[in-house]
């Protein structure tokens, strides 16, 4: 097999795998991803309840607080949004890295990466529109994009 071909597969495989994982989870209804009956039911959340009891803010026109959601759903919100940020950070990092290794200059690689991330984050939320019990949110597009941009930034620090 051609050495260049193998190198390209190694470069782009993480991008394809991460994008596929995002697509897979976007295809699942909320009930299949609900953390409350599993992980969160086995964790003592009393410390969170005591320390974050006064935390309250709006996200996508909904109040996020323990008093409104309960402690399990409150924690689940942060886990879910952290997962959005983290997976898109990985996607941005590996997409940018692949472009650089393909010989794209840094400035163009950043621009192409950010455009790709904006497109993929938007298409992910559109995909969720067609998935049962999922709500597409502009705020999630922004969160995903910022996570992806963070990944690009982190990778850009490497010389």
From TrEMBL:
Residues 15-155 form the VanZ-like domain. InterPro entries: Phosphotransbutyrylase, VanZ-like. This is VanZ-like domain-containing protein. It comes from the Bacteria. The chain crosses the membrane at residues 12-30, 82-99, 106-123, 135-154. Keywords: Membrane, Transmembrane, Transmembrane helix. Pfam families: VanZ. The keyword Lipoprotein does not apply.
